[in-house]
């Protein structure tokens, strides 16, 4: 392996029938770092994780994880990784402690070691109080934490987390983020998939944006943010006819012209001045006597990322037409993050969900 790289993937391609799920994925994850694989539903995130964790074979391309080839040495890879799938894998009839004890025993630990190990993990993931309740009654966030704890039983050097917070409420998400941070703190390499830019920003050292089975951009969170811009201030005036005046009043707040959505009657401006810009916006509107019905400040979303990267915010619709024969741009398909990139050829993907949970 290239020393210092815990995950290397080159040209991973995978078809299901005549559909391409992956069209040549390249990834490099330095040891001890966190890669966020960011993309919409159907982009190929889970397929990538399944290949890297030896659950699925690539049609083409190669990958090493913890220095072992996923195709030639799957058992060696499995011995070094942890995986928390898109759907939590704990046994709902067992308590949190029993779940972790069971997995520890499956990994060949003695009863005593397994008991101690389970106790340590429960503590580390803030589950001590709930340790002896059956996990079926857990909140989404607690289940996720239990699942993460389970993925760490074998003390893996590389951990895959597939959409660790999808479906969680804000509290569950915050708790899960803390758990992931814990994990990273002791040097574990993490590849996590997410549909949330904010999450990738918060947890990942670098981000690969994937869509239709190719990496369309990669960089650090701040590089990506520079392309996508800061927060969005969205203003809805009481008088819809005042939209143009609102846009004019807000022009100075952002680098670009405010965007007017004639359908919703809102005006959006991208700013990197944070909450202070919100006050400025309201003052500017008051100065020209525009009354506001609604005002919001929000971080960029995945849609904003796609808009910035591809000039097209339209993400693929579920169950739509098959992809064209050549969907990836011919120029190598991956671009460094730059604002104002031109249009990418956008294929259409099909959504599918399945169970990807895995336990040794
Ligand atoms: N087992 C499978 N059989 C057929 N198609 C699949 C299978 N797994 C994934 N796909 C297809 O591959 C594409 C990528 O899926 P997936 O990797 O699950 O995306 P993501 O995890 O980013 O939502 C989708 O179009 C999906 O329908
Ligand atoms: Mg998935």
Automatic annotation (TrEMBL):
<dbReference type="InterPro" id="IPR005894">
    <property type="entry name" value="DrrA"/>
</dbReference>
<dbReference type="InterPro" id="IPR003439">
    <property type="entry name" value="ABC_transporter-like_ATP-bd"/>
</dbReference>
<dbReference type="GO" id="GO:0008559">
    <property type="term" value="F:ABC-type xenobiotic transporter activity"/>
</dbReference>
<dbReference type="GO" id="GO:0016887">
    <property type="term" value="F:ATP hydrolysis activity"/>
</dbReference>
<keyword id="KW-0046">Antibiotic resistance</keyword>
<dbReference type="GO" id="GO:0046677">
    <property type="term" value="P:response to antibiotic"/>
</dbReference>
<keyword id="KW-0547">Nucleotide-binding</keyword>
<feature type="region of interest" description="Disordered">
    <location>
        <begin position="314"/>
        <end position="360"/>
    </location>
</feature>
<dbReference type="InterPro" id="IPR017871">
    <property type="entry name" value="ABC_transporter-like_CS"/>
</dbReference>
<keyword id="KW-0813">Transport</keyword>
<dbReference type="InterPro" id="IPR003593">
    <property type="entry name" value="AAA+_ATPase"/>
</dbReference>
<keyword id="KW-1278">Translocase</keyword>
<keyword id="KW-0067">ATP-binding</keyword>
<dbReference type="GO" id="GO:0043215">
    <property type="term" value="P:daunorubicin transport"/>
</dbReference>
<keyword id="KW-0472">Membrane</keyword>
<feature type="compositionally biased region" description="Basic residues">
    <location>
        <begin position="347"/>
        <end position="360"/>
    </location>
</feature>
<dbReference type="InterPro" id="IPR027417">
    <property type="entry name" value="P-loop_NTPase"/>
</dbReference>
<feature type="domain" description="ABC transporter">
    <location>
        <begin position="7"/>
        <end position="237"/>
    </location>
</feature>
<dbReference type="Pfam" id="PF13732">
    <property type="entry name" value="DrrA1-3_C"/>
</dbReference>
<dbReference type="InterPro" id="IPR050763">
    <property type="entry name" value="ABC_transporter_ATP-binding"/>
</dbReference>
<protein>
    <recommendedName>
        <fullName>ABC-type xenobiotic transporter</fullName>
        <ecNumber>7.6.2.2</ecNumber>
    </recommendedName>
</protein>
<dbReference type="GO" id="GO:0005524">
    <property type="term" value="F:ATP binding"/>
</dbReference>
<keyword id="KW-1003">Cell membrane</keyword>
<dbReference type="Pfam" id="PF00005">
    <property type="entry name" value="ABC_tran"/>
</dbReference>
<dbReference type="GO" id="GO:1900753">
    <property type="term" value="P:doxorubicin transport"/>
</dbReference>
<comment type="similarity">
    <text>Belongs to the ABC transporter superfamily. Drug exporter-1 (DrugE1) (TC 3.A.1.105) family.</text>
</comment>
<dbReference type="GO" id="GO:0005886">
    <property type="term" value="C:plasma membrane"/>
</dbReference>
<dbReference type="InterPro" id="IPR025302">
    <property type="entry name" value="DrrA1/2-like_C"/>
</dbReference>
């Amino acid at each position: 392996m290239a020393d210092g790289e815990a995950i290397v993937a080159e040209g991973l391609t995978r078809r299901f029938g005549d559909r391409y799920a992956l069209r040549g994925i390249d990834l490099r994850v330095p040891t001890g770092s966190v890669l966020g694989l960011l993309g919409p539903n159907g982009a190929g995130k889970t397929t990538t994780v399944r290949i890297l964790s030896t659950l699925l074979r690539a049609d083409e391309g190669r990958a090493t994880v913890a220095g072992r080839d996923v195709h030639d040495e799957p058992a060696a890879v499995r011995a070094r990784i942890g995986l928390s799938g898109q759907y939590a894998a704990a046994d709902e009839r067992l308590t949190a402690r029993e779940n972790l004890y069971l997995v520890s025993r499956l990994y060949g630990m003695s009863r005593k070691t397994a008991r101690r190990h389970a106790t340590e993990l429960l503590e580390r993931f803030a589950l001590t109080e709930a340790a002896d309740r059956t996990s079926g009654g857990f909140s989404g966030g607690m289940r996720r934490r239990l699942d993460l704890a389970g993925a760490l039983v074998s003390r893996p050097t590389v951990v895959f987390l597939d959409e660790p917070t999808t479906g969680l409420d804000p509290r569950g998400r915050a708790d899960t983020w803390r758990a992931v941070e814990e994990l990273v703190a002791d040097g574990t390499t993490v590849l996590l998939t997410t549909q949330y830019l904010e999450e990738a920003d918060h947890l990942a050292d670098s981000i690969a944006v994937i869509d239709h089975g190719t990496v369309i951009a990669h960089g650090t969170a701040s590089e990506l943010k520079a392309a996508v811009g800061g927060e969005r201030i969205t203003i809805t005036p009481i008088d819809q006819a005042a939209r143009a005046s609102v846009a004019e009043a807000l022009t100075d707040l952002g680098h670009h012209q405010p965007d007017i959505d004639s359908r919703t009657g809102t005006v959006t401006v991208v700013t990197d001045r944070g909450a202070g810009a919100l006050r400025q916006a309201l003052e500017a509107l008051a100065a020209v006597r525009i009354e506001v019905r609604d005002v919001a400040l929000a971080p960029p979303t995945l849609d904003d990322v796609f808009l910035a990267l591809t000039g097209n915010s339209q993400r693929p619709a579920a169950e739509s037409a098959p992809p064209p024969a050549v969907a990836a741009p011919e120029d190598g398909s991956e671009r460094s993050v730059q604002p104002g990139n031109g249009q990418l050829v956008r294929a259409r993907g099909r959504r599918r969900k399945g169970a990807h949970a895995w336990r040794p």
